[in-house]
Specification:
- It is a single chain.
- A 5-stranded mixed β-barrel has the order 4-8-7-12-11. Strands 2-3-1-14 form a 4-stranded antiparallel beta sheet. Strands 9-10-13 form a 3-stranded antiparallel beta sheet.
- It has 7 helices and 14 strands.
- The chain has helices at residues 3-17, 39-49, 74-82, 130-139, 191-202, 242-254, 272-275, and strands at residues 27-37, 54-57, 61-67, 87-92, 114-117, 123-126, 144-149, 156-165, 169-176, 183-189, 209-213, 216-219, 231-235, 258-269.
- Strand 11 (209-213) and strand 12 (216-219) form a beta hairpin.
- It is α+β, with helices and mostly antiparallel strands.
- The chain has 2 domains: 27-83 and 257-275, Alpha-Beta Plaits (2-Layer Sandwich); 87-254, Gyrase A, domain 2.
- It starts with a helix and ends with a helix.
Length: 277
């Protein structure tokens, strides 16, 4: 074998024989205390957000490991994962004025609550406390008391609903309303959800439809006709942003948590020599 050929063979062996050095495994780790079955929902929400993660679970905790993460955006991710995300649609009662005569079993004025009438003559409570709402709810045998605000930072008020549904969301897409230039989330329901939504809106024509997220009224549009086709929209209002619409879409698209998640610890992991970098 010639010296030139021998050196070439050695060089080739050197190129093919040395394994590629692997990047050290490091990143951030979120440790949650959990109740119920939450893993599948967490996996769907991570996929919705385009986040690659490794999940580890035992009977009491769920750990989400984010390889390669530098911690940026982890607080937003925590909020995405811990939000219950239960979406409901509730029809306004046919006679909202019923609240005007309800015997709540408490002295409303002494509790710091005011019973007021709006321009339509309907009654509502402002600055209602939790015990007051419980009392009002127990005094109503067939209706449900919902809580919401007229505007961000505005007074808390209550609404009466007579029927609620929680359709399963197949798709949730954030977008901007071309007419109002306000952000919204477009929803698509599964078959049973589409049928239930069409039936509810059919029975709520010329009344308000309460859009309820995690037991709080998000908005209350008036239904002009039955909404068929299995689609609906949630508007975020004038102070909403497209980024908030994206976050809401990720929550709703992943489905509601069938339990709870509470963050216990947020830490970096990896070789000690790299954690400070």
């Amino acid at each position: 074998m010639s010296p030139r050929l021998s050196l070439g063979l050695v060089a080739a062996l050197a190129l093919t024989g040395c394994p590629k050095l692997r990047e050290p495994d490091r990143g951030y780790e979120l440790k949650f205390k959990k109740t119920g079955k939450v893993r599948e929902t967490v996996e769907r929400r991570l996929a919705q957000a385009g986040v690659k993660a490794k999940l580890y679970e035992d009977s009491e905790r769920l750990t989400v490991r984010l390889p390669g993460s530098n911690g940026v955006g982890t607080q937003e991710l925590v909020q995405l994962l811990v939000t219950t995300g239960k979406l409901e649609f509730c029809s306004e009662v046919k006679t909202p004025g019923e609240l005007c005569g309800v015997d709540a079993g408490v002295a409303l004025e002494d509790a710091g609550v005011q019973l007021e009438r709006d321009s339509a003559g309907d009654c509502y409570l402002t600055r209602a406390t939790a015990p007051t709402l419980v009392s009002v709810g127990s005094a109503l045998t067939s209706n449900r008391v919902l809580v919401g605000s007229e505007a961000e930072g505005g007074p808390q008020r209550t609404f009466l609903a007579e029927a609620c549904i929680a359709p399963r969301v197949l798709e949730a897409e954030p977008t901007m309303n071309r007419d109002t230039n306000m952000p919204l989330v477009s929803l698509t329901f599964d078959g049973p959800g589409a049928s239930a939504f069409a039936d509810l809106t059919r029975r709520t024509v010329r009344r308000k439809l309460f859009i309820v997220l995690d037991s709080e009224v998000n908005s209350a549009p008036v239904v002009m006709e039955a909404i068929t086709g299995g689609r609906a929209m949630i508007t975020l209002g004038g102070k909403g942003t497209l980024e908030k619409a994206k976050q809401l879409a990720q929550v709703l698209g992943g489905g509601a948590l069938e339990g709870t998640l509470t963050l216990e610890e947020l830490t970096a992991y990896g070789p000690p020599s790299l954690l400070k970098k």
